[in-house]
Design goal:
It is built from ten helices and two strands; from the N terminus they run αααααββααααα. It is mostly helical. A hairpin with a 2-residue loop joins strand 1 and strand 2.
């Protein structure tokens, strides 16, 4: 099936977002609650708190009602959260706040921030592994994001869209895979939406 803006929005974009938000939050909470009690669980919860979950919403919309679509939504959200934890670290943006609350490294220390990013990334791949082909989509997005961060931080040459579009692309493709669709056109649509979002967000 080929994607269109109408088909991913369904009949009610607001309803899709409301349903996705509550379902994704519940699924993310369940994943965090499965971690051993202690600092690692607290840091993971802090990293996932208060997000807009736009990438997760996109995955849910593209894989509407597929049994494994929430796993795909969680995977992209976990990887996105991990990337934000890294962005906030002292060696990069040294951000004291994220989403109106203290950043993970500000609350738990830089070492905990690094480990939290690794933890969230591993959780993302566990979730993605529940759909054939989704791990490859997520891995490509992480590679593209990492190379963009490298160019921006160490070479001063990357644009913000290069860090944003890859995970939007993966979200759309992974949602499509959950529905059994060929992911290529969905990946392209996700990349376009990610680029548009970053331009509007700027």
């Amino acid at each position: 099936m080929a994607p269109t803006f109408a088909c991913i929005a369904n009949s009610s974009p607001i309803m899709v977002r409301m349903q996705a938000n509550s379902a994704v939050m519940a699924a993310l909470c369940a994943q965090v609650d499965a971690l051993p009690a202690g600092g690692a669980r607290n840091a993971a919860a802090a990293a996932l708190d208060c997000g807009k979950h736009l990438r997760a919403h996109l995955a849910c919309a593209c894989g509407h009602q597929a049994p494994a679509v929430l796993d795909m939504a969680c995977a992209v959200e976990l990887l996105h959260a991990a990337s934000l934890v890294v962005d906030d670290l002292p060696v990069f943006d040294n951000a004291a706040q994220r989403r109106g609350a203290p950043s993970v490294h500000a609350q738990f220390g830089a070492s905990a921030g690094i480990l939290t990013a690794h933890l969230l990334t591993s959780m993302a791949y566990q979730a993605a592994a529940r759909v054939s082909g989704a791990v490859a989509e997520l891995a490509q997005a992480e590679q593209d994001m990492s190379l963009s961060q490298w160019r921006e931080s160490l070479e001063g040459s990357a644009g913000e869209t290069e860090k944003t579009a890859p995970l939007f692309a993966a979200a759309a493709a992974m949602g499509a895979l959950a529905r059994g669709y060929e992911p290529t056109p969905w990946r392209a649509l996700g990349a376009e939406l990610g680029t548009l979002y970053q331009h509007l967000d700027d």
